[in-house]
Amino acid sequence: MIDSALRASRYDLLAPAFHADPAPVLHRMRRDDPVHWDPTLSAGVLTRHTDVAHAVRSPELSVDRGGSISRTDDADARAALAWCSEFVLRWMVFADPPRHTRLRAAVHRAFTAAMVERLRPTIAAATAEALAAAAPRGRIEIIRELAVPVPATATAALLGLPASDLGLLKAWTADMFALFGAGVASAAVVAAAHASMRACEAYFVDAIAARRRAPGADLISALVAGPDGAALDDDELVGLAVTLLAGAYETTTHLVGNGVLALLRHPGELARLRAEPALIRNAVEELFRYDGPALSVVRRARIDVAFGDTVVAGGQNVYCMLYAANRDPARFADPDRLDVGRGDTRHLGLGHGIHFCLGAALSRLEAEVMIGAVVGLDRLELDRDALGGGEPEFLPNLAIRGVAALPVRFRTT
Questions:
Q1: How far apart are CA 146 and CA 128, in angstroms?
Q2: pLDDT confidence of residue 246
Q3: Low-confidence residues of the chain, pLDDT below 50?
Q4: Residue 7 has what pLDDT?
Q5: Of 27, 218, 248, 378, which cross-links 411 as Cys (Cβ 3.0–4.6 Å)?
């Protein structure tokens, strides 16, 4: 049985050094303590591919974290956290069957492959515009100037939202993910997430009401006016809209940032991809595996669940470290090597089973277009001046893995 009575941990999963480079710590955990109890998180931590793959797809474990989306030690923040948890736990990604099955089916019928493919010209044009704007100075900050605005433009087209609202929507989702990945959230993190969730809820209640009055050619209208519309209440529709919004922003943004940084740190693979642009689709899958935007997901054991020789007790939460699973040498040969031509890239970076990322096709398309365009820039390199001579800083977040900023330089003709 996993020993939840332990009061100290050999691993600090909240330290800046861990977020900068999780691989060494996660390799030690996988080797020495693959079903580790972390007293700070009050949860188990899984690092073997076989255990993580089982946990994220097994009905023995729930996506409901026991009624709370995070933890806080600040008594004054607990009421706000309780509201945040109630709001978030309506979302499809935190629902178990049969509710999850019903909600996902509704989105699948509305969010089609054809709808995603229709966004390709929009994504390509927004990418070209961002790079053209940066060309005169030969510098671009990848996150702020490319990896945020391009998915935002695509999301606006997908959901039928005015482009003028996208900066605000991005700020709201950033506050939400800061709470999801905090481990132990401060009062300030809870307060910011609470305010943003309240504002986001009101925003989408108004948007849904507008679509009911006058449906358009967007995904929210398709959900409202489609065959499932009458079966979905406002809380469910708001949850679906926010889920699509948050996934579109956070997943793609940080895949592009992490991917470009990984290629810059592996100049041979950057040169290979530049010479063989047809590898871009495979390269995106390898980047999901090598350093994808999802560091971990949380599950709660419904019953006692065995992972090898260790049992996680019913009611305990476990952090399923997707990053560690994707670097497991028992699953991938030479897992710490980036290989844009790798033959087997069947990663867990987009989840697994019934909770596989709903927006996977859109994220893949956006990443292929953006990373493919950046790879084509001549003499691409980190802008060390903008970084003050240091390295890009990774966000202190256990849910999302990504850099706060990624300034690069390139030669213009």
A1: 10
A2: 76
A3: 7
A4: 45
A5: 378
Which single residue is written with the structure tokens 């989408």?
204
Q: Which long-range contacts link 136-139 to residues 24+ away (Cβ below 8 Å)?
A: 136/412, 138/409, 138/410, 138/411, 138/412, 139/383, 139/386, 139/407, 139/408, 139/409, 139/410
pLDDT digit string (tens) for 300-353?
999 999 999 999 999 999 999 999 999 999 999 999 999 999 999 999 998 877
The pLDDT value given to residue 393: 97
Cα separation, 28 vs 11, in Å, equals 9
Cβ-proximal residues to 27 (8 Å cutoff; 6+ apart), any chain: 324, 327
The torsion defined by the Cα of 361, 367, 373 and 377, in degrees rounded to 10, comes to -160
Tens-digit pLDDT profile for residues 9-44: 689 999 999 999 999 999 999 999 999 999 999 999
How do the domains of the chain map onto residue ranges?
Answer: 16-411
- Euclidean distance between CA atoms 399 and 181, whole angstroms: 4
Quick one: how many helices (H) and strands (E) in the chain? Answer: 17, 10
Distance of alpha carbon 413 from alpha carbon 408, whole angstroms: 16
pLDDT score for 234: 86
DSSP state of 1: -
Q: Are 319 and 296 in contact (CB under 8 A)?
A: yes
> Check: CATH 3.30.1330.60 for 16-411?
no
Instruction: Judge contact between 63 and 79, C-beta under 8 A.
Output: no
Q: What share of the chain is helix, strand, coil (3-state, %, to 5)?
A: 55, 10, 35
d(CA 169, CA 148): 11
Q: Could you give the 3-state DSSP secondary structure of residue 70? A: coil
Instruction: Please give the helix or strand (H or E) that residue 105 lies within, else none.
Output: helix 99-110
Which positions ≥6 away from 154 have C-beta within 8 Å? 119, 122, 123, 126, 248, 362, 366
96 φ, ψ (degrees, to nearest 5):
-100, 160
DSSP output for 106-158: HHHHHS-HHHHHTTHHHHHHHHHHHHHHHGGGTEEEHIIIIITHHHHHHHHHH
